[in-house]
């Protein structure tokens, strides 16, 4: 259980004041008897040469502990008559009553938010509908990892909502508390070669080691084997009962690097991936898309309408999108911009106006391509050209606006406006966990763009461009 954001921020704010005044040896007795500090930890702190150094070490440790430790520290300040200092911490005391953390959905409590943001789990998309049946299936499988390590695979076609479901499944107070008290750690994988994979594991190890002890940072592992061993050690010794979420795995060789007897949730388009790794395995298929009502709910949310007030074309649009959450969202975003185009978009979808090279994959990309093409088509000519430039972005790479300003050779303010336009049209995604915000394309969008760019540039297709029928 992690320290709540408010409490952490309070400790950081008053850290120097606390370090100047407290006598750790007095406070630690109380904290030991509350069971939030071990005798070993006390010994380590006492080895520090001066009172001030001991105070720094105690604060460092406290920041890595939980709400109970914060409360015990506060109580010990009161008992040792540091009332002034205690009053600094009072306003941000976490509430420990059994139900205080639980909202009606047991989901977005401060505790859950802290654990998930520490582990880099993405937030919900702006427009979001619940999928309770699938969520329960994933949570039920995750519960089976409570007693022993293993793998839960969430698989389904691109854009079917796997990543959103995986993040939502762990947004659950008692699931984390009961099954994964060691935390939840999210890793976006995608199509990677070995050097990239090594970098991913290096940064995961760095993150895990840093939150244990910021003083002693280790040299990064410099081969995949070494990285695997480092991660095995960390998960086994330092983060037992933590969950790793590996998002969008393509390749079983990647999975082998994580075959270290720990708890893993993975999303993939390829069901058979875990055949090559050992341990208990469970799977959940995100088989079909959204049912009709959920699709309508998404369109309603995008267009700020009640579902029963949607125009009659809405139902057919959802059907044409085959319930794909990604495609419905793309069309929803288009309709938010052009609310009188229901009929037009439905016609486009029905006439398969944007039919293009079919992928050799078993998945049905047609509906997605139609929606993507429609989104790009409504951009003003000059913005369309800028959007095509985004093919230089690589999968799973997120960039700040500054990079795009260089790429497009435009003023930052102009870039800002264009990015807002792209994001609103679901043509680009924004990660606002970071400052500055980072922008990225969904991997399907990138695939689409790369292919279209080849097409756009191919001389034989030029006459097609001229007749404005770029996809026929
Ligand atoms: N439950 C949902 N509610 C609303 N939109 C969703 C939902 N799930 C997915 N989406 C939309 O579909 C897009 C793709 O979802 P994602 O989970 O990334 O798919 P996948 O991982 O299967 O490729 C999201 O960016 C979002 O716009
Ligand atoms: Mg995904």
Automatic annotation (TrEMBL):
Residues 3-92 form the CARD domain. GO terms for biological process: apoptotic process; regulation of apoptotic process. Gene3D superfamilies: Death Domain, Fas (1.10.533.10), Helical domain of apoptotic protease-activating factors (1.10.8.430), P-loop containing nucleotide triphosphate hydrolases (3.40.50.300), Winged helix-like DNA-binding domain superfamily/Winged helix DNA-binding domain (1.10.10.10). SMART domains: CARD. InterPro entries: Apaf_helical, CARD, DEATH-like_dom_sf, NB-ARC, P-loop_NTPase, WH-like_DNA-bd_sf, WHD_APAF1. The keyword rRNA-binding does not apply. One of its GO terms (cellular component) is cytosol. Keywords: Apoptosis, Repeat. GO terms for molecular function: ADP binding. PANTHER family: APOPTOTIC PROTEASE-ACTIVATING FACTOR 1 (PTHR22845). This is CARD domain-containing protein. The lineage of its organism: Eukaryota, Metazoa, Chordata, Craniata, Vertebrata.
């Amino acid at each position: 259980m992690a320290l709540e954001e408010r409490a952490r921020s309070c400790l950081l704010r008053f850290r120097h004041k606390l370090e100047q005044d407290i006598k750790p040896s007095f406070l630690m007795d109380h904290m030991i008897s509350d069971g939030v500090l071990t005798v070993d930890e006390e010994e380590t702190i006492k080895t520090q040469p001066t009172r001030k150094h001991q105070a720094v070490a105690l604060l460092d440790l406290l920041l890595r502990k939980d709400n109970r430790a914060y409360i015990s520290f506060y109580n010990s300040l009161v008992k040792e008559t540091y009332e002034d200092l205690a009053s600094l911490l009072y306003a941000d005391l976490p509430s420990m009553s059994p139900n205080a953390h639980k909202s009606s959905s047991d989901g977005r409590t401060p505790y859950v938010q802290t654990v998930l943001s520490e582990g880099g789990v993405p937030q919900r998309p702006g427009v979001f509908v619940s999928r309770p049946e699938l969520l329960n299936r994933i949570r039920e499988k995750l519960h089976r990892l409570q007693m022993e390590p293993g793998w839960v695979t969430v698989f389904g076609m691109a854009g079917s909502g796997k990543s959103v479901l995986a993040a939502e499944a762990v947004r659950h107070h008692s699931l984390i508390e009961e099954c994964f008290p060691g935390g939840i750690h999210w890793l976006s994988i995608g199509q990677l070669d070995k050097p990239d994979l090594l970098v991913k594991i290096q940064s995961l190890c760095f993150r895990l080691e840093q939150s244990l002890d910021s003083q002693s940072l280790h040299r990064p592992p410099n081969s995949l084997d070494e990285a695997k061993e480092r991660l095995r050690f960390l998960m086994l010794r330092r983060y037992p009962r933590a969950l790793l979420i590996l998002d969008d795995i393509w390749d079983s060789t990647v999975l082998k690097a994580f075959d270290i007897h720990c708890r893993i949730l993975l999303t993939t388009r390829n069901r058979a991936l875990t055949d090559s790794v050992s341990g208990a395995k469970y799977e959940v298929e995100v088989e079909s898309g959204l049912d009709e009502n959920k699709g309508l709910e998404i369109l309603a949310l995008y267009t700020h309408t009640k579902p029963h007030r949607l125009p009659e074309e809405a139902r057919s649009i959802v059907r044409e999108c085959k319930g794909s959450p990604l495609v419905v969202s793309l069309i929803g975003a288009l309709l938010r911009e052009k609310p009188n185009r229901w009929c037009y978009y439905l016609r486009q979808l029905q006439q398969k106006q944007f039919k293009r090279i079919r992928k050799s994959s078993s998945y049905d990309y047609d509906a997605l391509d139609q929606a993507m093409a429609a989104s790009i088509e409504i951009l003003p000519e000059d913005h369309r050209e800028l959007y095509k430039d985004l093919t230089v972005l690589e999968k799973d790479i997120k960039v700040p606006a500054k990079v795009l300003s260089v790429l497009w050779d435009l003023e930052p303010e102009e870039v800002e406006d264009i990015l807002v336009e792209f994001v609103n049209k679901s043509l680009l995604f924004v990660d606002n966990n970071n400052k500055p915000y980072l922008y990225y394309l969904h991997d399907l969008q990138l695939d689409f763009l790369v292919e279209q760019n080849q097409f756009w540039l191919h001389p034989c297709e030029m006459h097609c461009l001229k007749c404005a029928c770029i996809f026929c």
